[in-house]
Amino acid sequence: MSVKSILISQPHPGGKKTVYDSLTEKYGVKVDFHPFIEVQSVPARELRKQKLRILDHDAIIFNSRNAIDHFFRIVEEMKVEIPTTMKYFCTNEGVSLYIQKYTQLRKRKMFVGKGTNSSFLDLLKKHKTLNYLFPCSNIRNEVIPNFLEKMEIEHTEAIMYHTVNSDLSDLASVYYDILVFFSPQGISSLFANFPDFEQEDRAIAGWGKTTDLALSEAGLKNTIAAPTPEYPSMVAALEGFIKSKLK
Length: 247
What we know:
Rossmann fold
């Protein structure tokens, strides 16, 4: 197969250029963006009804940019002033850097995992006397909350946003050579919209272990798995696959 078109199952990141533009420039590949899932805000009044008290906690756990966006939205809506003593635990460096969009933090208030579950859980274990707030979606990975429960670490889960399937009906008659997924929710949305979907001769690119597992469970082949030592980014993995088809 030759690669002529790629669908990224995320919204366009904004701006005039994206990291995927190099694929178009080098290989003439058409790259489209279409979010397969949507994020809906939970209003502060609902969290007030649940008697959420942000300032009862010593530390905040962040595992995504969405969690950061909605936490600071809720803080603003509730008119809460976060004390300088608050600690922030982030699953990886990318998440920690994103916090700077809202506030500048001293290093001693920031605790950052190395991108693996084990490295982040070790951080929590070292600080198990803290009372944590975990802002999350209605659909979330259970690793962190299960660990907190197991270790009997005081914490509160606060659902600050909902993840729902997008309407993909406008894609019904459109064919792409490669479909790119970054989460199990994207795959769930695919089958919610197209229950009879079959991979056929399409290539599918899946990011991360949970996405790879979801693809397998759905009976789909993760043709372009990433990240790998050879291809640490999705755009690198896609380029490697396109090059292999040109030989």
